[in-house]
Structure formats: C-alpha cells, structure tokens
Design brief:
The protein contains eight helices and 16 strands. The protein is an alpha+beta fold and 295 residues long. Helix 3 links the parallel strand 3 and strand 4. Helix 2 crosses helix 3 and helix 6 crosses helix 7. The radius of gyration is 19 Å and the shape is globular.
Length: 295
C-alpha cells in the first residue's frame, strides 16, 4: 500500500514564490511507493482547512511548507492524532524547524520525511488555541504587529520593526500573573512563553527550553529604563540575558495572565498576531501530543 503524503504550501511565506511541483516530488517519492498531493494556501487559516481535508482523505504524513505560522495552522489539526507532521522550511524565522534540526536543503528534508522517524513533542495552548514554538505579550507582540505590515519578511525587516517599536512602545498595563502556586503583579515590558529553544533567525530568549520536558519556559522582563533596556538588548544579542538581575526565568505547566484594568492584551502566537477575546489569558502545556518527522 502506498504512503499518502500531502504537502500544504504557503506560496508567500518568507521571500515568497514558494513552489513545489509534482514532478519534483515524484523524483524523491516514487509513484510505486507514495501517493503525493500538493495543496496551496490562499488566505489566513486556509492551511488549517486544507489539513482537515487531508486527514479525511487518509493522509498519513502532512507536510507544512512555510514558516512558523504555516506550521501552526497545519499542526493545530494534527495534535492528538496519529498523522505525522513533516516540515519544509520556507518561512522567514523558522524557529520550530530549527529547534527540530530540520535542514533547509530540500533533498535532506525529503529524506527525513521518507524515513518517517517521528518523535512526540509537547504543544502549548493560549486560551485553547495551539502554539508550538512560543507566544508572548508586550514588546514582542508589538514587534510582530509591525512586522506583519511589511511586504517582505526577512531578517532586515524584523530588525527595522524592532527599532520602530522601541521608539514608540510604551507599555503601562499592570497584569496579575499566577503560576506554580504564586501570584505576582507587574507592569511588564515583555512576557515571553516558549516551548522551544529558538525564536527564529537563530535568536533565543529560552536557550534551555525543551520540546519534550512537559514544561513551558517563561521570561518576565519588567518595565526598564532606557539605559537598562539597551543593556538587555545587547545581552539578548549575545544570549546572555540571564545576566540581568531584573529579568526572571520560570518553568511552568500553566500560566494565568490577567489585565487588572480589563485591557485586551495584544499577543503573538508562533510569530503571528493573536488578539485574545478577554482580558484573562490561560496558557498550558500538553505533553507529547504531536508526532513530528525528525532526523
């Protein structure tokens, strides 16, 4: 019986113009052994619809071809199923793929998919919506919001968005945090919750995070002076942010965030803007409920 593999392609991920031809795929996945299908996304959340259809069509492996946003849409429908997730890096940041050591080289990535060597990884949820790499509030969410307005999604565009956001960002909300039996009130510059050890572009706030430890790594950065913000940025670039005593690191299974003035907090989820429907946010980890093809 032939293995059914469906490729969900985001044509505009990363630098855009992403193409996969059936002729190319059949070079690596011979018709005698594989049944290959290619589906292209046309709008936001289209990948989720295409993935659900592929599951109904009996696909055994569904390959997300794009960046973290595309992976999120595909993988959201694969949690708690036996269908394997494959990944082809075609996005800009590619944080999750990099953490999983998925190569950018197509031939090597195809080889991983063909071997069907899968591991089960943890997944997170924010108010019930899945994320696989990270979610965040405050500064990084506003950077992502600015970044999404760019027509090109490359590292230089991300740097420009970061600098623009630094100039105009003034976060004064007070939030209540509940985790590990403690309650804290802070006015954070940044709240970052990560399942993986990379944000994308080889950058990381949580270098020791693991996709298989049943925990989420949380970085809490309070409101900082301009000088200390500069120091934090420099330390982050050299992966030494833990040197700053004001920055707190926690590991949790659940985290509750509540805006005390009932403001709806802007968030990012796997590199895409996410606006919760209420001021109370609950983030949870779900151990080893997604099967991913790896080396």
């Amino acid at each position: 019986m032939r293995t059914k593999i469906h490729f969900i392609v985001n044509p505009i991920a990363g630098k855009g113009k992403n193409e996969l031809s059936k002729t190319l795929l059949e070079t690596y996945f011979p018709k005698e052994q594989y049944s290959v299908s290619i589906k292209k996304t046309e709008f936001v959340l289209h990948a989720t619809d295409l993935t659900k259809a592929s599951i109904e069509e009996g696909a055994q492996i569904i390959v997300a071809c794009g960046g973290d946003g595309t992976i999120n849409e595909v993988a959201s429908s694969l949690v708690n199923t036996s269908v394997l997730l494959g990944i082809l890096q075609m996005g800009s940041g590619n944080g999750l793929a990099s953490n999983l050591k998925i190569p950018k080289n197509l031939k090597k990535a195809f080889d991983i998919i063909k071997r069907q060597n899968a591991i089960a990884i943890d997944t997170g949820t924010i108010n019930g919506k899945p994320f696989f790499s990270n979610t965040g509030f405050g500064f990084d969410a506003h950077v992502i919001s600015d970044f999404e307005e760019n027509t090109t999604r490359q590292l230089f565009s991300y740097v420009k968005s970061t600098l623009r956001t630094l100039r105009k960002y003034h976060y004064k909300n007070v939030v209540e945090l509940r985790y590990n039996g403690t309650t804290k009130r802070i006015s954070p510059f940044l709240l970052f919750v990560s399942n993986s050890n990379e944000m994308g572009y080889k950058m990381s706030l949580t270098p020791h995070a693991s996709l298989q430890d049943g925990l989420l790594d949380v970085v809490i950065v309070p409101e900082l002076s301009t000088f200390k913000l500069f120091i934090f940025t420099m330390l982050f670039l050299f992966k030494k942010q833990h040197w700053m005593k004001e920055v707190k690191f926690e590991q949790v299974t659940t985290l509750e965030i509540k805006s005390l003035d009932n403001t709806i907090l802007k968030a990012q989820k796997d590199g895409e803007v996410f606006i919760p429907k209420e001021p109370r946010i609950e983030i949870s980890i779900h151990p080893k409920n997604l099967n991913v093809c790896v080396q």
